[in-house]
Specification:
Layout (H helix, E strand, L loop, with lengths): L2 E3 L5 H12 L7 E5 L6 H5 L3 E4 L5 H8 L4 E4 L8 H14 L4 E7 L10 H14 L2 E7 L7 H10 L1 E4 L11 H13 L7 E5 L7 H12 L4 E4 L2 H10 L4 H15 L9 H6 L6 H8 L1
Parallel strand pairs: 1-2, 1-4, 2-3, 4-5, 5-6, 6-8, 7-9
Helix pairs in contact: 1-7, 3-4, 4-5, 8-12, 9-10
Length: 285
Amino acid sequence: MSVVITGATGHLGRLVVEDLLAGGLPADQITATGRDTAKLADLSAKGVSTARADFGDPASLKAAFEGADTVLLVSGSEVGQRVDQHRNAVEAAKDAGVGHIVYTSVLNAAETTLILAPEHKATEEIILGSGLTYTFLRNGWYSENYEQQLHQARETGTVLTSAGAGRVASASRSDYAAAAAAVLRDPAAHANAVHELSGDTAWDFGELAAAMGEALGRAVTVTNVTPEEHEAVLTGVGLDEGTARFVVGLDTGTREGELAATTGELSRLIGRPTTPLVETLRTLV
């Protein structure tokens, strides 16, 4: 079996490679890829093959995927460009003779109104149209996504949100990486499967503030504002309007319950409970 990991220079992809190695998959069966292979030198030193793979360069993708049985397509980070980038990866996988593609999507991708979901839904449709065997890992929210708010809370003692009473069933990156690694170790058992993945507990922003306070060792409160007020605050501190609207849109999705599902699939897949929110926040302090 041979496995290629895209985005291995990023947080999630690297964690997947490390989990595969820790779980006993031979290093020579793993290829870690990224745009800058110099950032993969430590993995190469462990015996992992490395290759340049740039979503904007189809030839590099095909070369990196040659001979692979399974490719983990870690979704790109460039919002607005991901559909074309992911299409390049899927087409390269098919051209290279890859048998199975595993894609990190978003919770309830086909139906959610979450602002970042359309690119994931479109990518799933591209994969379905390719004829490749697939597994969709529909990842919920990452607890690490609150790192910036954690640092702001250290300075201000408050968490600013327009999510209202919305809840988030977040899990750590390492939890989601462990799920991806579990699938990659036995891809045939997950052929044409869709896994809706989320944390075991859905918390509200009062509970987030309490967890931040525990991690920081200081009192943290919640400041709930309207979406309009939220956008004004964000642009007032220097965010461009597009980014501010995107952030507010994420809070709107949270308020509407799009990140609240506790499916239990993630903990079942990794064979342990998901990481409590406060534990992840402590690693970010």
